[in-house]
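Progress against Task 2.4 (sequence-to-structure conversion) is shown through the following example record, which the project officer requested during the mid-term review.
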Amino acid sequence: MYFLGLGLILLAMKYLEIGPVAAWSWWWVLSPFALAVAWWAWADSSGYTKRKAMEREDARRKDRIDRNKEAIGTGPRKRR
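Structure tokens generated for the chain above:
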């Protein structure tokens, strides 16, 4: 996501001819988009995306279970 944001900023700076980016080659300006595509391809093929989604779901489920236990008064016991 950072590559995409950087690419959009550089693209706007090149188009509006702001700063030193105006003199850069288009290859340098568009390279963050290629890096973003490479990152997404790697993340999908390695299972990184699915693993992160499962971790978020597990955390939400654990929080929901903890809230429900606390609501009915059977929350985690404190050690004496």
